[in-house]
Amino acid sequence: MNPLNDFATHDRRRFLKMAAAATVAVASGLRSGPAGAAVAAVPWRSLSQIDAGDLSIQYADLGPRAGAPVILLHGWPYDIHSFAEVAPILVAQGHRVIVPYLRGYGGTRFRSAATPRNGQQAALAADVIALMDALGLRKAAIAGFDWGARTADIVAALFPERCQALVSVSGYLIGSRQANAVPLAPKAELAWWYQFYFATERGKQGYERNRREFNKLIWKTASPQWNFDDATYDRSAAAFDHPDHVAIVIHNYRWRLGMVDGERRFDELEQRLAQFPTIGVPTITMEGDANGAPHPEPAGYAARFTGKYKFRLVTGGIGHNLPQEAPKPFADAVLEAISLA
């Protein structure tokens, strides 16, 4: 499959009709809800695949190829379906929307068995730059949550010439192993229980054996008021069956704690990130009013954004998976951030 092929005319018309219908549905608040509710429609008919750096990346590619590009990045333990209701809204405004599976998820695969199964933050950012290069994209708006927000932050901070605008759920998430070595208050440490579980061999084996049940628990605790149904979860959980998923997740959290090394080719980037660089591209940060996952307070990171900047609190029991729980506010933030550029 050539991922740069245009839609056939009848496919394009069909998709734009779907995009308009999805926009109306989201605006009306129709999305996955109580058990037995319909699962949100998937706007992509098929997925594309492209070699990019270390990876062969599987991704959804929607909208006109000449449209201003938007890259949407999911987190752990989620997948591209977090943006199933966001993408049509952006396409309806003329944007090309690219939604990749991160390394360790879905159909994204390492191109070589010899490549380290590395989950450090700089590696994920390098994947995005490699994807943009492979697609011939000089610049794009980038938006994400969880791991995806951190990755988007890094691209915006270190490669601002590639980032038109930024939307980051939970704000400034760039980290450093030096900062992570400092103990937190007991209540804050409790919120990171899974990180300490993953630091043990028991945790690694437990995640390998029970990844679907484990990740469903994370969905529930991170979004305690989101009444998602089994079909919605199962659709995303298929992405966790990736042969390298466990290795990437375990490495990510162990790397944060300084228990394992990253790759030396990323040392210079990590040294720059450890200085907590400011972000000057137009940015909107967001938070849900019922986010049960660890997250910083907006007042604590606002100064890290030195360009045009706004913060949006999304109310109504919205948790950690903000794009899927509140797709219209998320899509609106992307469009607003682009308008600031």
Describe the 3D structure.
The chain is globular and about 50 Å long. The two termini are 34 Å apart. 41% of the residues lie in helices and 14% in strands. Strands 1, 2, 3, 4, 5, 6, 7, 8 and 9 form a nine-stranded mixed β-sheet that branches. The chain has 341 residues and is α/β, with parallel strands linked by helices.
List keywords for this structure.
alpha/beta, Rossmann fold, nine-stranded mixed β-sheet, globular
Number of domains: 1
Major sheet summary line: 9 strands, mixed
Topology pattern, helix = H, strand = E: HEEEHEEHEHEHHHHHHHEHEHH
Rg over alpha carbons: 19 Å
The third-level CATH topology is Rossmann fold
The assembly state of the depicted protein chains is: single chain
What's a quick, concise take on this entry?
This protein is 41% helix and 14% strand. The chain has 341 residues and is α/β, with parallel strands linked by helices. The protein has one domain: Rossmann fold (3-Layer(aba) Sandwich), CATH 3.40.50.1820.
